[in-house]
Design a protein that fits this description.
single chain, about 1500 residues, alpha/beta, five-stranded parallel sheet, 61 helices, 31 strands, globular
Length: about 1500
């Protein structure tokens, strides 16, 4: 297998290089935002930049990046654009800037929306330029840029400005481009279309000639573009050199065609145009397909296009076609061809009279149509309306191969993305359904896919070229298409991670060629072992109708001569764990060094990769066992040899064996010499893929009100509760509202009517009756009636009510939850929604799904505090152990709770029986208790009610309520007296409350009866899951892994609530909707609540290509917001000071502050020792170095790391609690660097301590702290902070203080960050501190301090200041301690406070570091001396094992931060360095 070429990373220019650029100098003169006096607009500037900077550099990304970053588009190009100044350079410059914005994944159309007037003219110019001759004004490279721009337009249909221009190109009138016979055929198929077509023709006749000609040009644009592409394609030679401009043009064009076919609004009319052009046939017969290297990506893209052109969907209606409908279409095509042959072509009588099954195979079609002449084939095609009619006197211009291929014969089958076999182009060959193709597809990736850069790009993907990958956009063709795209992308993302693991493990094993030509391993890997023996032990027979085995099993023997803990890991492999079998045949001799910068496959000689699934380990008798299964102890195995029984992929095995038998290829399964395992948390991809495939094999019953919205069509608000036909008018809001005033402010614009006038009675809880909205109704013509209707629609009827008495015991009282306001309180809102559903619809079951265990546990802990019966709560998954409670909410924990609770309740029954003097053993079982309640308790209660109920007109006697009460003795242990004797109504309510308490005991026992009948814990836990639990919580990963088991159990639920919905992958959001079987063909799902913030970070996607090109990071929540699904916005925050909130509230519609943010003292008091509550601190290069990158995306900045830690130490020395400070950064490398400095500087120092957390911004999402110190790291390019969502997260974590360390000159020019950085740069860029101000301070925020302000100009100054401050504190403390020791004993014993202070000082002095522990950073001798010693002591630290620069960078940190006796601690290891790109 050829080794793939290593892609090169685009190196971002430094700030100094940027400033030296000609473009930057022009920007400073004409359009830079920070320049106040700008020169007037000059068209020659645009011409010069385009010719000298863009064209001359061959559209170099670096040049375009500089221009786009300088706000060239926003501040110069578009603001000055008009038809008068439009030119080729102007058009191309705008297109380059828009394309660059899409490449950087930043909003591209905002500038055009602000000034939309000239966009229609601009767009028409683009269309004209795209059709220009390639040897004319626009070069092929330039036209490729235009194609990419058009592709972005077609994928931005949600933008009104773009849609208004694009829809003219893809509507019904575009059928003008069809040949007349084909047009007539299509109009005949759908009679309704003929009416529209006649209407279009009438409207055209009314247009003036110029407008009509313009309209015709637009309608024929795509047809003409296809013809132009075909001419370019035909100019590609078979073997002679070809310019890459032609190849790239062809690739981009096919990408555009795929995107048009994959969206229903564009596909509806375009698919017929594409079919009529016979584009696919031209492509497959082209020379480019047969060029192995140049045409590889083109061929893959072509396979994708072929797949979508034949997609199983009705183009006009948008309905998915069933298997029967597709078969009917196939038969109709064959029979129409047979009728044509019978009527007009006597030479085809044999074909016409044959049955369909006999003539729809390739062999029979070749035999029947091959002998025909080209003219005859053309006549057949023209009869089928596939080609224009051939005049009798002329010969066809098409060659025979072309006519055979597009009319009758299939093209060879291909794999889309290497995974999904595509449909044949031929109309007449027997087809295999997409589901059949999917079921025959292997789930494990092989070496052909893993190292194919077009399918699984490396971490250095730049976004320049197109890829053979599906895209997740706004809309999908069908649910099958939706699942299929997600299936492929999820598999590819997993493949990328698998590739990283294989490369890491195999390179660590150092496979070399031995002297005798075999393989010898010079190293070892924790996650991989050499295979001693491999044997296929079972190949089970296929199921009926299938051609692959039902099961393939093999035995893998390895020798575990490793450390005990690694041996335990291998022996601990569980059933269903996925491993990979690898074959290497190295060609490098023993001792060859491995270079990570060179191609991996070439160095290790990797040949094959196959996946397998563990069944278990074999014992001495050959029986399988698994460490995790069964209560039996694991057998004690002798020796080091271990054999694992594994399941192989049956589909892959069948393909490999077929290849071996038919082509004489090598038997893959006799070559394996390495087995590799993976970390369990990263190894669940196969289970998720199987779940998605199972979904595609079942009838996915999505609720009718959700179906179109998930696909991105129809009315986005159709699933809103206000549009539902079965609206619920009255709801009990329980403890949602704190007061009637709170309720009124929660419904602004509504008229609130309270059923009681007395203010003393207007107390919660409240029932609210809403006006039922209906889409249907009589239209009121009179104005007064309309006003009355509107007034009625906004009137809420509020009824305060009293919760019925639940019993006399204190624990009977309902719990009251107090909603706290951190952030906007999304979690609290979620908890309140769950509570209200639980109380209003007690028979319904609610499923809670979140992205992470941490978020789920936070939510679940708040739910536990609600007034919800504990027996109705269930938490699934492994994260349950982290719940901060002694109670066990797992399945088996709930079973134990039920059993224990049953015993408690039966004891209560026993006590009640004794109090009533009833003989027998009523408390023996739940069943006997039920009879006891029915015959003994109910009879006494009914008799009691008959005695005390109000009879006739006589006034009731209060004393009778207590006198006749039959359960006095039972309630003797309740607070006395039970009855107050104040009024009849009050005492009757107490009596009924007591009975409710008793009745609840027997109700629960009736529910627990099943636990008596079911004997095993497993059966009881299943019953609990399916019947008992009302609120079930799990992560989206658990839902994906366990869907099959849940559906099999008969799991049911009515409502879904998703927290962190904006952080969940699209497919992981969709799967929880289908965890139950439909009822009578319909889903029982009634509500779907999604809670999240699409302005914060999206799901984590490690591969940049899938993230950027395929848009895999788009969550379903974000897509719903983009297509306009109505949202409820939480518009007040309670986390941060108002001044801090201003740094990010511009990103939201109208985010205000809750009242306590202005009222509470902590928000109004200044931050002691610091002049500002937030500040941006500029950090220049330290020792001539800014950012460094020892490994891909493992960015570090020593100067910023030192500065951040110095400020943290300063704050702690002032008295700030260390746990109130968190240090955040935007990259993993910087995180490890800062942790390393803290470990060496102050981690064990009792005067300073450690911050609450040192982590990345991405990891800290959803959390908060009082003070945040933020390091932005980058000094060359803004990097991924340019994603405004990451900026919002970074700015919104702090409550009281935010201090940002960054290279200001870099970030202040970034257009996307302007709203935040304009506020930050308005304050001084040097740190302003007040060292003499004590903590806490009395100074109000914003007041000038009474103490002296000191300005810190750079990091070394701050480090020296902190060192001096620390030494002064130590000396002062030591002097004070000595003074205390010299005092007379009587004075020392005067107060306990002095003693406690003395003890504290002694403790501090014992742990007091020497001067060497905190050296001055500018002390060169100390630094160099420690640098030398540290380099010897820690050969591989943060950025270890990579470059000497990385080692020295970290060594300088340790030199600055630790004394000579510093102990090396863990920092960024190689594994950390090579983890995800950017921050994960």
């Amino acid at each position: 297998m050829a080794a793939p070429a290593q892609p090169k990373k685009i190196v971002a220019p430094t700030v100094s290089q940027i400033n030296a650029e000609f473009v930057t100098q022009l920007a400073c003169k004409y359009w830079a935002p920070h320049i106040k006096k700008k020169s007037p607009f000059d068209i020659k500037v645009i011409e010069d930049i385009y010719e000298k900077e863009i064209v001359k550099s061959r559209f170099a990304i670096r040049k375009i990046m500089l221009l786009e970053f300088s706000q060239y588009l926003e501040n110069y190009l578009w603001m000055n654009y008009s038809p008068e100044v439009s030119s080729k350079a102007y058009l191309m410059s705008i297109c380059c800037m828009v394309n660059e914005k899409f490449r950087e994944n930043v909003p591209a159309w905002e500038t055009f929306k602000k000034k939309p007037d000239h966009f229609p003219f601009f767009f028409k110019c683009i269309l004209k330029a795209a059709l220009a001759e390639t040897d004319g004004e626009f070069s092929l490279h330039e036209q490729t840029v235009l194609l990419l721009f058009l592709d972005h337009c077609f994928n931005s249909l949600e933008v009104d400005l773009i849609r208004s221009q694009v829809q003219q190109l893809i509507s019904l009138p575009m059928w003008m481009g069809l040949q007349p016979a084909r047009l007539e055929l299509e109009l005949k198929k759908t009679p309704k279309l003929r009416k529209f077509w006649n209407l279009i023709k009438k409207n055209d006749e009314k247009m003036d000639p110029e407008a009509r000609e313009q309209a015709y040009q637009e309608r024929r644009f795509l047809s003409q573009l296809i013809q132009k592409f075909i001419s370019v394609l035909k100019s590609v030679p078979l073997s002679e050199p070809v310019t890459m401009d032609k190849v790239h043009y062809c690739e981009r064009f096919i990408e555009l065609m795929i995107d048009l076919e994959a969206l229903l609004p564009t596909r509806r009319w375009f698919n017929t145009i594409l079919d009529d052009s016979h584009l696919l046939v031209h492509c497959y017969l082209s020379n480019l397909v047969h060029r192995e290297e140049d045409g590889h990506l083109f061929s893959q893209l072509l396979d994708m296009l072929k797949f979508y052109t034949g997609f199983e969907i009705n183009d006009q209606t948008g309905n998915a076609l069933t298997e029967n409908e597709m078969t009917t279409i196939h038969y109709d095509r064959i029979t129409s061809l047979q009728r044509a042959a019978f009527a007009h072509f006597p030479e085809l009588y044999d074909f016409a009279l044959s049955n369909v099954a006999e003539v729809d195979t390739r062999g029979s079609l070749v035999k029947l149509f091959g002998p025909l002449s080209s003219n005859t084939l053309h006549q057949v095609a023209s009869y089928l309306c596939l080609l224009p009619t051939l005049p009798k006197t002329e010969d066809t211009t098409f060659d025979k191969e072309f006519l055979l291929e597009f009319c009758f014969l299939p093209l060879k089958t291909a794999l889309w993305n290497g995974f999904v076999p595509c449909k044949h182009v031929s109309r007449h060959e027997r087809r295999i359904s997409q589901i059949q193709q999917l079921n025959q597809m292997p789930l494990y990736p092989t070496e052909k896919i893993i190292w194919d850069e077009n399918i699984v790009p490396t971490e250095y993907y730049s976004g320049e070229g197109c890829l053979a990958l599906p895209k997740l956009n706004l809309q999908f063709l069908t649910l099958h298409d939706y699942l299929l795209r997600n299936f492929n992308l999820f598999r590819l993302e997993s493949t990328y991670e698998i590739r990283q693991d294989i490369e890491d493990s195999v390179s660590r094993m150092k496979p070399w060629q031995s002297e005798y030509g075999g393989v010898v391993f010079g190293g070892w890997a924790r996650m991989a072992q050499p295979i001693v023996a491999f044997t296929v032990v079972e190949v089970a027979k296929p199921n009926i109708g299938e051609n692959w085995p039902t099961r393939v099993r093999a035995d893998v023997t390895i020798n575990l001569n490793v450390r005990d803990h690694i041996k335990d890991e291998w022996e601990g492999l569980r059933k269903h764990d996925v491993c990979f079998l690898i074959t290497v045949r190295p060609t490098k001799p023993y001792g060859t060094k491995f270079d990570r910068r060179r191609p991996f496959i070439e160095q290790v000689g990797l040949v094959y990769v196959r996946g397998c699934e563990i069944q278990g380990m074999l014992d001495d008798k050959g029986r399988t066992f698994s460490k995790c299964l069964g209560p039996e102890p694991r057998p004690n195995l002798r020796g080091e040899s271990r054999t694992f029984r594994v399941f192989l992929d049956p589909n892959q095995y069948q393909q490999d064996m077929t290849n071996t038998i038919q082509n004489g290829a090598e038997d893959v399964y006799e070559t394996f010499n390495i087995i590799m395992r993976r970390k369990p948390k990263e190894n669940n991809f196969k289970a998720v893929l199987e779940t998605i495939r199972n979904l595609m094999n079942t009838d996915c019953v999505v609720p009718a009100w959700l179906h179109d919205i998930i696909l991105g069509y129809g009315d986005p608000s159709s699933a809103h509760y206000s549009k539902m036909p079965n609206q619920i008018a009255t709801l009990d809001f329980n403890d949602t509202f704190l007061s009637i005033e709170h309720l009124k402010t929660s419904f602004p614009g509504h008229n609130v009517k309270v059923t009681v006038d007395d203010p003393a009675l207007q107390i919660p809880p409240f029932r609210i009756t809403f006006p039922v909205r209906s889409g249907k109704g009589k239209k009121r013509k009179d104005v007064d009636g309309e006003d009355e209707d509107t007034e009625e629609a906004k009137t809420l009827i509020v009824e305060p009510h009293v919760i019925p008495n639940r019993g006399p015991y204190p624990y009977n009282q309902p719990k009251r939850s107090v909603v706290g306001p951190p952030g906007t309180g999304k979690t609290d809102v979620a908890v309140q929604i769950i509570s209200n559903i639980y109380h209003n619809f007690p028979e319904q079951r609610t499923l809670i799904v979140t992205h992470s265990n941490q978020a789920l546990n936070q939510l679940f802990e708040k739910i536990m505090a609600l007034d919800i019966d504990e027996r109705h709560l269930l938490r699934l998954g492994h994260g349950e152990e982290e719940l901060e409670t002694e109670k066990d909410f797992s399945r088996y924990g709930r079973v134990n709770y039920v059993l224990a609770r049953r015993i408690e309740l039966l004891e209560e029954v026993k006590r009640l029986q004794k109090s009533l003097g009833v003989p027998g053993d009523a408390s023996y079982t739940c069943e006997t208790a039920g009879y006891f309640f029915l015959y003994q308790v109910m009879s006494r209660w009914e008799e009691y009610i008959s005695k005390v109920k109000n009879k006739g007109n006589t006034s009731p006697d209060v004393t009778e309520v207590s006198t006749f009460f039959p359960f006095h003795e039972y309630f003797a242990n309740a607070p006395q007296p039970i009855f107050k004797g104040r009024s009849y109504e009050e005492d009757m309510e107490i009596a009924e409350g007591c009975f409710r308490h008793i009745k609840k005991i027997f109700t629960q026992l009736e529910e627990f009866r099943a636990s008596e009948l079911l004997r095993s814990g497993l059966d009881r836990s299943k019953y609990l899951l399916v019947k008992e639990a009302k609120i079930i919580a799990m992560t989206c990963t658990h839902a994906a892994l366990k869907r099959h088991d849940l559906v099999k159990l008969g799991f049911k639920y009515d409502n879904i609530l998703m927290e962190e919905a904006a952080q969940i992958l699209e497919i992981e959001t969709f799967i929880p909707l289908l965890l139950q079987n439909p009822q009578d063909g319909f889903s029982r799902l009634k509500r779907w609540i999604m809670i999240g913030d699409h302005h914060q970070l999206p799901p984590v996607i490690k591969n940049m290509a899938f993230q950027k090109y395929s848009n895999m990071e788009q969550s379903l929540f974000t897509r719903f917001v983009r297509i306009g699904v109505p949202t409820v916005d939480l518009d007040a925050q309670g986390r941060a000071r108002a001044s801090l909130c201003n740094l990010y509230n511009w990103r939201y519609k109208k985010l205000g502050n809750l009242p306590h943010v202005q009222l509470l003292p902590e928000f109004s008091t200044a931050n002691a020792g610091l002049l500002y509550d937030f500040q941006l601190i500029n950090v220049e290069d330290f020792q001539g170095v800014g950012e460094s990158e020892p490994n891909p995306y493992f960015y570090q900045n020593l100067g910023e790391a030192e500065y951040v830690v110095a400020l943290f130490m300063y704050m702690c020395l002032l008295g700030y609690p260390a746990d109130k400070i968190s240090i955040l950064t935007t990259y993993n490398g910087q995180k490890h660097l800062i942790r390393d400095i803290i470990n060496r500087r102050c981690g064990s120092n009792p005067l300073i301590g450690r911050p609450n957390k040192v982590t990345t911004v991405d990891r800290f999402q959803g959390q908060q702290n009082d003070y945040i110190l933020l390091s932005l790291v980058r000094t060359r390019a803004v990097g991924h902070l340019r994603d405004v969502r990451r900026l919002v997260v970074a700015m919104s974590r702090a409550r009281l203080g935010l201090y940002i360390f960054a290279r200001v000159s870099l970030f202040q020019n970034c257009f996307e960050l302007t709203p935040a950085f304009s506020q930050l740069t308005a304050r001084p860029l040097h740190l302003h501190i007040i060292p003499t101000e004590p903590f806490p301070t009395c100074r109000k925020n914003g007041e000038r301090p009474s103490h002296e302000v000191q300005v810190i100009k750079n990091m070394p100054q701050m480090a020296n200041f902190v060192y001096n401050m620390y030494m002064h504190l130590i000396q002062t403390t030591h002097h004070y301690h000595q003074t205390l020791l010299q005092l007379p004993p009587a004075m020392v014993e005067e107060s306990e406070e002095v003693q406690s202070q003395e003890t504290e000082m002694e403790t501090e002095e014992e742990g007091m570091p020497t001067q060497a522990d905190i050296p001055c950073l500018t002390d060169a001798s100390v630094s160099h001396e420690l640098l030398a010693s540290q380099t010897e002591a820690t050969p591989g630290r943060a950025g270890t094992g990579s470059s000497p620069e990385a080692t020295s960078a970290v060594s300088e940190v340790t030199a600055a931060a630790a004394g000579p006796e510093a102990v090396p601690t863990e920092a960024g290891t190689q594994q950390d360095a090579t983890s995800a790109p950017e921050t994960k």
